[in-house]
Amino acid sequence: MERRKTVYLIVAVALAAFALMLPICSQPLSAESVGESADTGSISWILVSSILVFAMAPGIAFFYGGMLRKQSMSSMITQTLIAIGVMTISWIAVGYSLAFGEGGPIIGSLDHLFMSGVMDSAPSGISELEFAMFQGMFAIVSAAIVLGACAERIRYTAVIWFLAIWSILVYAPMAHWVWGGGWFDQYLVVLDFAGGTVVHICAGITGIALAVFAGKRSERVRNSGAHNIPLAFLGCALLWAGWFGFNGGSGLAADGTAVRAMFVSMVSAACGMMAWAAVQYMVVGRIGVLGMIAGSIAGLVGITPAAAYVGVPESMLIGIVAGILCFFAVRYTKSKLMFDDALDVFAVHGVGGIWGALATGIFAVPAYTGGVEGLIYGSADLFIGQIIAVVVTLVFCFSVSYGIIWILSKAMRVCVTPEEELVGQDLIEHGEHAYM
Fold first, then answer.
1. Measuring CA to CA, which of 12, 117, 119, 228 is 20 to 30 A from 408?
2. How far is Cα 343 from Cα 149, in angstroms, rounded to an integer?
3. Is CATH 1.10.3430.10 what the domain over 40-117+125-430 is classified as, yes or no?
């Protein structure tokens, strides 16, 4: 009864605050029709890309859920759904404004609260409202990626509160630093086409912060194998398809850059998968479905920051190295480290993202970057900038994320009990079995 009263109070306060904000933030969206100079092809492509990126969220639910015990399938779906809800509302309310509003080097402004002043007309290219929607899908996917590292340990209510705060204190500043004119852009030479730092490294190290705080699962739970490999494969297929919008749409135009980004993404994914399979066969003596799909994801993560800046040969090398690095990262984190990254989020997204960022600094082709040279073309400026961006991302996202969950633990019970962990969150928290 006390918990119900608390929920009612929070909802009432939130609704009251929203009502008070409406007069301030209710500048109407522009109702102008698309002009003759608008690029209708790009408008259509970014709309399609937004759908593709959104499809990655249910893809993550299937991918993660299939690799867990059957007692955690409904929980993973529910956590992914809440990530969609929380990140969408946060992005509309304040996240977009903090990320892309005109501000200083650290954070944007509050000029676009609740999309105030964001126009839906497209005098040239795509509209700002379409850009905001596309970028909002990236915020959703980033949050969903985090969930795999701390799977089966963090309570549902804690996930909600954590993501709501994380979206403002971690994700929005990262997006501003890299894409919104923040200090990465102002003071460093940094290239991150589709989110190597903002999405993958940030989400990977955030997951580690939660996993470190929550501690290891019981040995019995850790040793449980994937309960549904076909579901995990389906999730990978959705992620792979969604990545074409993720990378192909990040140039915000239907042009040659989009074609090249999609092409090298396919190449890198295939090379990452084949490299993982080869090294798994040499080390373990067999090749498995889960290894091959992890290798494809590693290749996709590795090419993400460089997708518009390299050609086909470079993308092949990036994918091959990503597959090998992530394979050994998974083995190392499983056997040597003291934290329990349940679904190898950092080993794939974090390590793959770090390699992708560094590879961008090494292989960036001046003809594709507008003159910015990778290391092999004679300039170290980009490579140094990429190193600094990676280190700052790791330190900032880990420390703030750990601080958020630590503070939350002082106000609520964050982790499930060992008994609840064994039974599974499907039944304990949601009262739903994924399978009858």
1. 12
2. 6
3. yes
- 97-136 b/e with 16+ CB inside 10 Å = b? bbbbbebeeebbeeebbbbbbbebebeebbbbbbbbbbbb
Terminal-to-terminal C-alpha distance of the chain: 31
Distances in whole angstroms, Cα of residue 134 to Cα of each of 52, 97, 170, 335: 10, 14, 19, 39
Of 387, 338, 41, the residue nearest 212 (C-alpha): 338
Longest CA span, the chain: 67
Place of tokens 């299939």: 66
For residue 4, count other CB atoms closer than 10 A to its CB: 8
Q: What is the pLDDT of residues 97-146, one digit of tens each?
A: 999 999 899 999 999 999 999 988 877 789 999 999 999 999 999 999 99
pLDDT band of 4, cuts 50, 70, 90: low
Whose tokens are 């999730």? That residue is: 235
Name the residue among 56, 142, 132, 64 with its Cα closest to residue 344.
64
Structure tokens at 121: 């007309």
Q: What is the pLDDT of residues 356-367, one digit of tens each?
A: 999 999 999 999
Find the mean pLDDT for residues 232-258: 97
The CB-side HSE value for 309 (13 A sphere, CA atoms) comes to 30
Radius of gyration of the chain (CA): 21
- The H-assigned helical ranges of 249-380 are 256-284, 289-303, 312-335, 345, 351-363, 366-369
Q: What is the pTM of this model?
A: 0.93
Closest C-alpha among 367, 300, 257 to residue 63: 300
C-beta of residue 343 within 8 angstroms of C-beta of residue 67: yes
